[in-house]
Hints:
The structure holds two protein chains of two kinds.
Chain A: H1 3-11, H2 15-42, H3 44-48, E1 53-58, E2 66-67, H4 69-75, E3 80-88, E4 91-92, E5 99-105, H5 107-113, E6 118-119, H6 122-130, E7 134-138, H7 139-145, E8 152-157, E9 168-179, E10 188-192, H8 193-199, E11 206-207, E12 209-214, H9 220-230, E13 238-242, H10 243-252, H11 257-286, H12 288-297, H13 301-337, H14 349-376, H15 379-384
Parallel strand pairs in A: 5-10, 7-9
Antiparallel strand pairs in A: 1-12, 1-13, 2-11, 3-5, 3-12, 4-5, 4-8, 6-9, 7-10, 8-9
Chain B: E1 5-18, E2 21-34, E3 38-42, H1 49-56, E4 64-69, E5 72-73, H2 79-89, E6 90-93, H3 105-110, H4 120-133, H5 149-161, E7 167-171, H6 179-196, E8 199-203, H7 207-210, E9 215-220, E10 223-225, H8 227-231
Parallel strand pairs in B: 3-8, 3-9, 6-7, 7-8
Antiparallel strand pairs in B: 1-2, 1-4, 4-5, 9-10
Helix pairs in contact in B: 4-5, 5-6
Amino acid sequence: MNDFLLIFKNLFRKKLRAILMIVSILIAFAIFGVLAGFERAFNAGQDLAAADRLVTVNKINFTQPLPIAYYNRIQSIEGVADVTHANWFGGYYQDPKNFTVVLAIEPASYLKIFASEFEVAPDQADAFVRERTGALVGETLAAKWGWKVGDRIPIASSIFSQKNGSSTWDFTITGILKAAKPQIDTNFMLFQYAYFDETRSFGKDTIGWLILRTTSAALNDQVADRIDQMFANSSYETATDTEKAFNKAFVAQLGNIALIVLLVVGAAFVTILMIVGNTMVMSVRERTREIGVMKTLGFPGGRILRLVLGESILLALLGGLPGLGIAWLIAMAMRESLANFVPGIAITPEIAGAALLLMLALGLITGLVPALNAMRLKIADALGRS
Amino acid sequence: MADDALVRLSGLSKRFVKGQETITIFDRLDLAIPAGDFVAVMGPSGSGKTTLLNLLGGIDRADEGEIQIAGQRIDQLAESELARFRAAHVGFIFQFYNLMPMLTAAQNVELPLLLTKLGRQQRKSHVATALEVVNLGDRAKHYPREMSGGQQQRVAIARAIVSDPQLLLCDEPTGDLDRATADEILATLQTLNRELGKTIVMVTHDPAAAKFARRTLHLDKGRFVDAADLAA
């Protein structure tokens, strides 16, 4: 026998009570894991944003267009190293429910600015630049539909239509785009802006937003001010900010995900804290005489404290670790179906680490009061109590 | 007082405060118990028997006086030192056995050895010996709920002796048992005293139990008195 066995036997002396507490902790950590996975996926764009990249959008709203002429004008601004532009296509494959992220972009400049994020074979990149109806497909999206280089695919738009009345464009896959880092999502498709602008029935010579790289991140504020001043009082005023701020604003449209996670998880944990804390106090109180006997045998107060704290920490771990495991299974199961809306949902090592710290904190907080009571218990009082 | 006393109380006073009233349990009590003695302490309820055991075991503190056990002034020890002292020198046997219900007999007996530096195999060996001494070698893996009251008390005795303490303090050890079983337990204590040389202080209400001791002390109103005085 050792202290761990003693802790384990104490914890499971009332099996039903222990199991119910473990299940309640398990549920709380499963909720935490899934919601934290969501939150992390929602905010992944902010974390991956490059420090020296800025985004220029229409000042009214980023869904409003900007003239394509801004592309050339911004290139001439001091402190701008590279510029590219993109346009939201609102695409889907075969059925509107198969929503797909599709962007109309300027190929050469776009691939240059995002060279550190995405990898494309040089011959495939060349083919994409050359081929007017060519498309670069992210490997996640390609794997999802079984697409390969050379395939001809029809992609419809829920926003735009062609001059001939059709809302479907045909593309030839010229390359597969791979993520340079594991946390980068590749569930999207790129095609040539020139092809899009030439064929669409409205909005000609406009773009969605501009992405630019500054010569130094230190110049970001100056460059952003210069751009916005250049287009001030025009029909299309601009708002320029860092890519991180842009991504954050994009996510904020859906609500404050971090706050929602905090509130839900907070409510779950406060409830669990009270239930487990109260049960631990009762459980130790029921053992007052036994604790008195252990002290009589010579167990010092500090060791009694460690035994009770060990019990509450073990309880938190026995509930928390399987709960985190279940969260991982749920995240994996939802990863595919939510790939279009929340790509990259996963229980990351950071989430697992935070969960582990939460388990330890839960164990310590719920065990502290009964452990201190047990440590301070006077033997004569304990043995006198029936 | 005998020079070879294992237990020596000098001028011991103990008072309890209850509301505005102060109750004196002992007032300058003296006592010497030589090593190897088996003393029964009898007396009416409230005479201070259990308080005396608590003071001898270092689980309660006196207001005045000295308590010396095995040459050590335990009234001067801090709580942590007292815990170490109890683990090394004193074995306790209670009326209601006080075994841990979720531990087997062997695990209950092993409990005090977790406070020692003995290895797993050594602890196992000590536990087996202690259970053999109380004739419960075949019950090592049984839980308290699977044993009779007498068997549970024998496990408690094994737990008290497993770390080989010099002094055994027994608080009504047969108070919860029938006569035959009580006599078995008392015979076991007698054997521990006579063959292993354990010094035993046993509090009891039962005159038949006291007969197993070498001598009987009568406690009344915090003082040791002659049995004849008590009867009068």
